[in-house]
Amino acid sequence: MEETTPTQRLHLVMGGRVTDPRGHEFADPESLHVVGVFSSYEAAESAWRGQAQRTVDDAEMKYVIVHIHQLLTPGE
Question: What is the pLDDT along the chain (76 residues), one digit of tens a residue?
Fold first, then answer.
């Protein structure tokens, strides 16, 4: 029987100024703030929460968590 290893799950936290606070279109994608890449959702969420709370008074600033592992293996 073949032993399987768990699939690595990577999460990217990034943010920047958006054109519309209700959307995800960044006004200047070249100047996005990349917070980092995290191997667990919990760590990514903690980093996201810290950045989002730091910019809470600026409605045009948005931070998001991107599930990189879903982009690398979309069928899983």
Answer: 455 455 788 999 999 999 999 999 999 999 999 999 999 999 999 999 999 999 999 999 999 999 998 888 777 6
Structure-block tokens of residue 37: 């890449």
Q: Where are the beta strands (DSSP E) in 1-76?
A: 11-17, 33-38, 61-67
- From the list 67, 68, 59, the residue with the least C-alpha distance to 18 is 59
- pTM for the model stands at 0.83
User: CB-based contacts of 17: which residues, under 8 Å, 6+ apart?
Assistant: 26, 27, 28, 31, 60, 61, 62
Question: Do the beta carbons of residue 68 and residue 11 sit within 8 Å?
Answer: yes
